[in-house]
Amino acid sequence: MTAGRLDILREWMVAQNLDAFVVSSAANVRYLTGFSGEGMLVVDQGVTLCTDGRYTVQAAQEAPWVDVAADGGGHIANVAARLMDDGVARTGFEADVLSYSSYQKLVQQTKGIELVATCGIVREHRACKDRDEIALIRRAASIADDAFATLRAELQPGISEREAALELHHLMVRGGADRCSFETIIAAGPNGAKPHAQPGPRELAEGDLVVVDWGARVEGYCSDCTRTIAIGAPDERRREVWRAVWEAQQAALALAGPGVACRAVDAAARELLAERDLAEHFGHGVGHGVGLEVHEKPTLSASSEDELRPGMVVTIEPGVYIEGWGGVRLEELILITEAGSEALTHAGYDL
Amino acid sequence: MTAGRLDILREWMVAQNLDAFVVSSAANVRYLTGFSGEGMLVVDQGVTLCTDGRYTVQAAQEAPWVDVAADGGGHIANVAARLMDDGVARTGFEADVLSYSSYQKLVQQTKGIELVATCGIVREHRACKDRDEIALIRRAASIADDAFATLRAELQPGISEREAALELHHLMVRGGADRCSFETIIAAGPNGAKPHAQPGPRELAEGDLVVVDWGARVEGYCSDCTRTIAIGAPDERRREVWRAVWEAQQAALALAGPGVACRAVDAAARELLAERDLAEHFGHGVGHGVGLEVHEKPTLSASSEDELRPGMVVTIEPGVYIEGWGGVRLEELILITEAGSEALTHAGYDL
């Protein structure tokens, strides 16, 4: 599945006059090699995974075509040794991932080698998914949909946020997920005002809005979806806010397609909430890419410079958060196609 | 619970002639403030949490005494603005956490401010736990013990690694854990040769050794424990290797206490395995600190410069991993006391 990805990286390296590239992001290492443990990659004439004794057997299974360097001195020392042994003159590294002190160690241990700071090169490649990746995300999304449908029927007053999150985890793993793609958010009543609330002991109560943000992970690939549901009959204000968020989401979904500026999609949702005097309560961007990481390129926000392209998988998730009152967020995971977009998540929208 | 921790940091800052310190490790931010979301901390005359709109309500709840800066330009921009506004001349930053490109942004946005690279200052403070922290780790370990005792009775041929991991998760959360402290490892038969194996579809089979490495998390604090058990009757070789690892662990446990060099504890286990011709199969350090992170200071390995001190909570976990055959690891979580050490995990050792 990783075939061809190194070729693209190497073409870029030639254009940048780099004879090596050091990959330190775990998701990028996995993308390029299939190896899912901890380690760093040196790409030059060969491909070397610099890791340690905990991962040698795993590396041989997951990426048998890769050289493995697992001497005890640490990953950076293994990277430096390989660069020196291979006579590298000029190497790129991931400046947005490597820590400042790891960079300094690399400088000290690679005397004479020019280190070139780069940002987001492999992440940028990862933004547009290939057929295999889309199939895995589709599967993850489908598992998540099914689990939510079952959970939805079980939610009632008296169940705690934590119990509901546990049940959703159970349903997803039973349904074929390796695990949750992130810690499930189940935020009832006033807790909904925290976009990244952690499920706690609060029990769902009559009249609550409950924000459920969940995803499944399959072979490393994530899904991501949010629904906000009511326990019993919501009051008029809750219906209004929910409706406004839904309309904002529909406006953004309608706009999302190839060639569209990500900030325009954000603006579409934000303008609609502004018309309802709710924009001040929408304190995050409207979406983000999803793949091996649950947050990756592109970024859909007011300040984004990204543009949507076919093969991108992104969320569209406006929200309104009011301290002491609660919150509403609705999130769809979509695939950007040549013609427009396609929803990958299909959970029902009944309040 | 965080009272006093900032005082210790500020004393150190005075000694280093720093008028500010920037904290970017999530665990360090939580340790100093109680805030459990994403953000960076500026400690100078005041304390400012630089975050974004997703976390403002959460920050007000978890750390009400902290100033919050959540302007939209990003965490680094908020940090830089605060340092400039406060007229800081010389600030420390966490060089082992901050990425090289974030460091560069900070340089560009804080003209005239001297940035001093530091490593592990707060992590070092965190190595020795206070009474509240020990109580939480004790609770996490106890929940994990109880869950394992239940699981142990349920394990039999035909259950998959993944199902067993799901059950353990369920039992721990039902038992009061917020969640698992890391992704549970359940590695049956040959999979045991991978120290960090991920639970998969393999079913437990008669004669298998099964490595189970699991932990619970309570209010951010982790437990960590490993047992290796047999399904049915293990053969003579499996009994021998298990016994050798157990003896290596007991040797290390007997040595662990205040004032002892961490590398001596590692050596105690390694020497015993060497006597059994198994040392080449022990490819990782004998242990690590556990707290807000599942791997933290100190490091118990052959190259460690750390020394055990009262209040440290560390694992003792020798292992033997043989490709194609499987593995054995036995891990205890212990508290270093004035007198020696005390086990915090109590799962049975029956093979």
Describe the structure.
The structure is a homodimer of 351-residue chains. Chain A has 351 residues and is of the alpha+beta class. The first copy, chain A, has two domains: 5-125, Creatine Amidinohydrolase, Chain A, domain 1, CATH 3.40.350; 131-343, Creatine Amidinohydrolase. Helices cover 36% and strands 22% of the residues of chain A. Chain A has ten helices and 19 strands. Chain A has helices at 5-15, 26-33, 56-62, 75-85, 100-109, 121-127, 131-154, 161-174, 236-255, 262-275, and strands at residues 20-23, 40-43, 47-50, 67-69, 90-94, 114-118, 179-180, 185-188, 209-214, 216-218, 221-222, 225-230, 287-289, 296-300, 313-316, 319-322, 326-329, 332-336, 341-343. In chain A, the strands form six sheets. Chain A has a six-stranded mixed β-sheet with strand order 4-3-2-1-5-6, sandwiched between helices. In chain A, strand 16 (319-322) and strand 17 form a beta hairpin. Chain A is elongated. The first copy, chain A, starts with a helix and ends in an 8-residue tail after the last strand. The mean pLDDT of chain A is 97. At the A-B interface, helix 3, helix 5 and helix 8 of A face helix 3, helix 5 and helix 8 of B.
Topology (SSEs and partners):
The structure is a homodimer of 351-residue chains.
Chain A: H1 5-15, E1 20-23, H2 26-33, E2 40-43, E3 47-50, H3 56-62, E4 67-69, H4 75-85, E5 90-94, H5 100-109, E6 114-118, H6 121-127, H7 131-154, H8 161-174, E7 179-180, E8 185-188, E9 209-214, E10 216-218, E11 221-222, E12 225-230, H9 236-255, H10 262-275, E13 287-289, E14 296-300, E15 313-316, E16 319-322, E17 326-329, E18 332-336, E19 341-343
Parallel strand pairs in A: 1-5, 3-4, 5-6
Antiparallel strand pairs in A: 1-2, 2-3, 7-10, 8-9, 9-12, 10-11, 13-14, 15-18, 16-17, 18-19
Helix pairs in contact in A: 4-5, 7-8, 9-10
